[in-house]
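FORM 7B: Structural annotation worksheet

SECTION A. Query
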Amino acid sequence: MLSNTRMLSTLLRSDSAVQELKAAAELDSVFQQDVAVVFKHSTTCPVSWMAHHQVTDFQSSRPEVPVYLLSVKKHREVSNELARRTGVTHQSPQVLIFRRGSLLGSASHGEVTSGLLERLTRTSAA
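SECTION B. Predicted structure
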């Protein structure tokens, strides 16, 4: 069985379109994207791995939308800064969808679905 760290490394290598957020300064580039998804993930949480599956399904169908992975255990300070900037209380798993720095929506736990991500990112295309 793979360790949680090895599973996360495999995820990032196998899906080159997913970028890992490692520093609070990187949030500025996320906020400059036309549309972007931030996925807050905990490698030790089974619900987070189910949400991860939904996010990767979405990313496969919409590769043009940047998806950023934020490992909350490894980069808690980035997660805290994201919560501070958006006013959205930290949860994990959680997705936040942005358009040019404005928060379009967020969801956590079982609400994280590829369908929700699809709707929010399509709505934002206007």
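SECTION C. Observations
The two ends are 44 Å apart (CA to CA). The first helix runs from residue 4 to 14.

SECTION D. Sign-off
Analyst initials: ____
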